[in-house]
């Protein structure tokens, strides 16, 4: 279990942590366990020798100690420029897990039937012996799950977790084998730790990297811009160019939304961004909108490391917005004062909107947290107006909000889906003519907005929200069209 937990983190910078990757990881580990159980039982019947059992544990520990050293060149070679679609994620992650992680899993699985065979002295007690060993094995699995997840991975690191558990296996095996020379195998994890590079995934212009509790994070400088990259790097989460306020991406289009959700009366507008990342939208709102419209900005970001990057790398002073570190849906339920604008811009593994932020129940919660004139705005990546994913979001938002709109905005694949309890009054966009940087953004959005028609989409609910499936199907369809 410790190896499985660490494996998911080791794979994340290259393949992400989507359901596809987890399915491959869990499935192949189960295959490895099945092979190990079957062969271990046969081997134990032929050679019921304790020294052979401890030798297997030693071999598994030595192999594990080499995984961080060998994994990076193997994983980097698998990317090779052709990576990026769901099919290649499935194929490449399958091959990586098969080559890197399957052998030690097979060896470790051989231990259980071997131990039962050695511990069973009387057939009449075989049930008690097997039950006791399975109970001990399950307790070990519990420790192997919680210790890496809550202690070693967050406080030591992924590679260090693998080295630690490998050294533990080697030490136990060496002790039971009883020869001092066997303890020299502990030099393998020590040497591997010294030789393994400190940077997880080196790239040109790397300013920052961290393997956080939630994901692998990089800040990269490229062409004069600073980019926030998560996991495998299939998308950019935040952009900062010290010489240009606007980014040329979808965040520019979202800049004028506060004028469509302006509250009645003298109070400042309250805006919430779920998935605030490095705060690109906060920076744009602070510089362009606040001088014309008082705003109180809030953000929700699940990863505290990502939440801290705005002032360090993305041009924020640090006082533009109040950022809550939490899951977006959980945080939304805790707010009591209504918001005038809620922007949902949360993505997991680059392509996927988290399913819990895509359902009718979630959008109903958003509506309860909106002021009467409030506005929901959703950033959806789609390959075209007829993409099933976009249609599903249009239908789902329309099931909650009586007035729903969609617009193709800046960015190659970005669409804005809007939900409101009242018809949109577009006059504030017309009033922005002649307002510097805001004028072309307002004109673009006004021209692009149209009533949403999600009649052909599926309704996304907490019970059924196949967001990953719809995204994968959309990407594969686009790949097929490009090949023709």
What can you see in these coordinates?
The protein is of the alpha/beta class. The protein folds into two domains: 2-195, no CATH class; 227-483, Vaccinia Virus protein VP39 (Rossmann fold). The protein is 52% helix and 15% strand. The chain contains 20 helices and twelve strands. The protein has helices at residues 2-15, 19-46, 50-79, 86-100, 102-109, 111-119, 126-155, 158-177, 187-195, 250-254, 257-260, 280-289, 304-307, 309-313, 328-334, 360-368, 388-400, 427-430, 438-448, 467-483; strands spanning 206-211, 216-222, 225-230, 236-240, 269-274, 295-301, 321-325, 339-344, 370-381, 403-408, 414-420, 450-451. The strands form two sheets. Strands 7-6-5-8-9-11-10-12 form an eight-stranded mixed β-sheet, sandwiched between helices. The longest helix has 30 residues, at 50-79. The two termini are 44 Å apart. The model is unreliable at 80-84 (pLDDT under 50).
């Amino acid at each position: 279990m410790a190896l499985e937990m660490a494996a998911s983190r080791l794979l994340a910078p290259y393949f992400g942590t989507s359901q596809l990757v987890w399915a491959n990881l869990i499935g192949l580990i189960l295959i490895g366990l099945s092979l190990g159980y079957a062969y271990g039982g046969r081997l134990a019947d032929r050679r019921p020798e304790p020294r052979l059992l401890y030798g297997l544990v030693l071999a598994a520990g030595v192999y594990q100690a080499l995984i961080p050293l060998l994994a990076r060149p193997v994983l980097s070679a698998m990317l090779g420029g052709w990576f990026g679609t769901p099919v290649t994620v499935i194929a490449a992650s399958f091959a990586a897990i098969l080559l890197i992680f399957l052998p030690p899993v097979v060896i470790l699985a051989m231990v259980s039937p071997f131990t039962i065979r050695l511990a069973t002295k009387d057939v009449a007690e075989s049930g008690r012996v097997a039950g006791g060993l399975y109970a001990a094995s399950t307790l070990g699995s519990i420790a192997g799950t919680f210790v890496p997840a809550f202690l070693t991975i967050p406080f030591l690191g992924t590679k260090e977790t693998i080295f630690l558990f490998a050294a533990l296996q080697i030490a136990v095996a060496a002790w039971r084998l009883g020869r001092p020379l066997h303890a020299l195998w502990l030099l393998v994890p020590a040497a591997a730790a010294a030789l393994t590079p400190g940077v997880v995934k080196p790239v040109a212009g790397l300013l920052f990297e961290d393997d956080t509790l939630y994901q692998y994070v990089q800040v990269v400088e490229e062409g004069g811009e600073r980019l926030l990259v998560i996991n495998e790097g299939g998308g950019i989460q935040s952009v900062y160019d010290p010489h240009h306020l606007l980014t040329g991406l979808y965040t520019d289009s979202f800049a004028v939304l506060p004028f469509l959700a302006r509250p009645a009366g003298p109070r400042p507008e309250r805006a919430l961004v779920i998935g605030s990342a490095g705060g690109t939208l906060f920076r744009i709102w602070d510089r362009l909108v606040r001088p014309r419209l008082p705003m109180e900005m809030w953000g929700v970001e699940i990863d505290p490391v990502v939440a801290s990057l705005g002032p360090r790398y993305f041009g924020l002073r640090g006082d533009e917005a109040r950022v809550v570190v939490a899951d977006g849906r959980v945080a939304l339920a805790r707010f009591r004062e209504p918001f005038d604008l809620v922007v949902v811009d949360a993505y997991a593994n680059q392509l996927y909107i988290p399913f819990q932020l895509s359902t009718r129940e979630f959008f109903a919660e958003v509506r309860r947290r909106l002021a009467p004139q409030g506005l929901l705005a959703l950033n959806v990546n789609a390959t075209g107006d007829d993409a099933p994913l976009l249609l599903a979001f249009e239908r789902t938002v329309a099931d909650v909000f009586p007035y729903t709109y969609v617009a193709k905005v800046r960015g190659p694949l970005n669409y804005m889906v809007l939900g409101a309890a009242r018809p949109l009054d577009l006059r504030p966009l017309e009033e922005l003519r002649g307002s510097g940087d805001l004028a072309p953004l307002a004109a673009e959005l006004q021209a692009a907005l149209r009533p949403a028609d999600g009649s052909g989409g599926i309704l996304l609910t907490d019970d059924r929200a196949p967001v990953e499936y719809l995204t994968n199907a959309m990407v594969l369809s686009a790949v097929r069209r490009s090949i023709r």
